[in-house]
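Good morning,

Both structures are done.
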Amino acid sequence: MSVQIPKAYFPFLKELKENNHKDWMDAHKSEYIKLENDFKTFCKATVDELNSFDQIERVKVFRINRDVRFSKNKMPYKTTRSAIFSREGVERRGSYYFQIAPDTSFVGGGFFSPEPADLLRIRKEFELDSEPIREILKQPQFKKAFGGFNTDSQVKTAPKGFSKEDPNIDLIRNKNYFVSHTFTNEEVLADDFQENLVKHFKLLLPFFDYMSEVLTTDLNG
């Protein structure tokens, strides 16, 4: 039986958004602790589901407290809840991620702000041969769920060392290589949300496995 997201978490997060200060959180501490424990139970149960087709090293539930030291936004609390599931071993790259919040819930995965060496390796691979990644991106279920790479962050023409005339420049221009799928509030609070979430995670596996092969080899294989 699927474990559910606590339905009371959305009303709590809505109220927190309107009352984002320590006094309010202190007054609702017992409610928050109960909701957070239920959320962590959901995440731990999701690890078990992921391990049925992948190997997960750990799950990290992100803290609700914001780091405001270097931010203009001094609100002390996040108004979303999120977790990341890291794959086991250096040979398995990529992590599964999801976030819940009223009207802004999504699942995602890929390579966000990769290290310069990894970013260059990915771009060089796509410059050499883009067919494998394009085959993954156009798989009907994958395309329906995720569309394609998020293109909000790209260089304007071409990265240094690459030609803007390259036939694969649409891929090479990206600074990030991740995909996402949004969920409605009703989907998140449905009895089968965990099943739906894991189904989307499983669709990421061929992408992760291919990118792991790329990032653990050089251009000569």
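Second structure follows.
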Amino acid sequence: LVFLDVLDPRPDALECVQDAASRAVGHIETEDVLQVSHPRGVVLVFPGDPEDGLFVALGLRDALEHEASTRADFAARMSIHLGPVRIVDGVAQGEGPTVGAQLASVAAAGQILSSRSFFEVVSSLSAEHKGLLHPLGRRRTSEGKELDVYELGPHVQREAEVTWPTGRTPAAGVAAVPAPPVLQPIPLVTP
């Protein structure tokens, strides 16, 4: 499941996130996704293929980042988890939405955090999928529960590059970034 947590308290922000979620899952067959409103946002349940949740979450992040660039004080965060969900009277219940909400609560605005169960299943599908999930270690939720957390998305966007002056050794545990190669001009040959 994908859990979207809206940080903007304005009612139209929740409507915006619900609309974005509807557009993001528009290409998926109706029996392969269930969109359930939540007081803090939206829960998208994918009963079949976990890859659907992976790609919808990435698309939603892009859509919500665009929305944040056009609306002042708009922010949302997401989580993705693999766990049991029960829908009762239009409300998502069970371990899945509970862990999804806990994961989202430790995410930063614009960030997608994944549970260990989702990481293990999706990373077993392909090396490319595994490369999208980066371990962040354990995080403690406001309820005091500790979760193994993985960030979904390109790792290089979340990292600062560290370079070292030549002749100096980086601090212990930090890898030095090699100097870029010197590029030589290629002679232009004309007929």
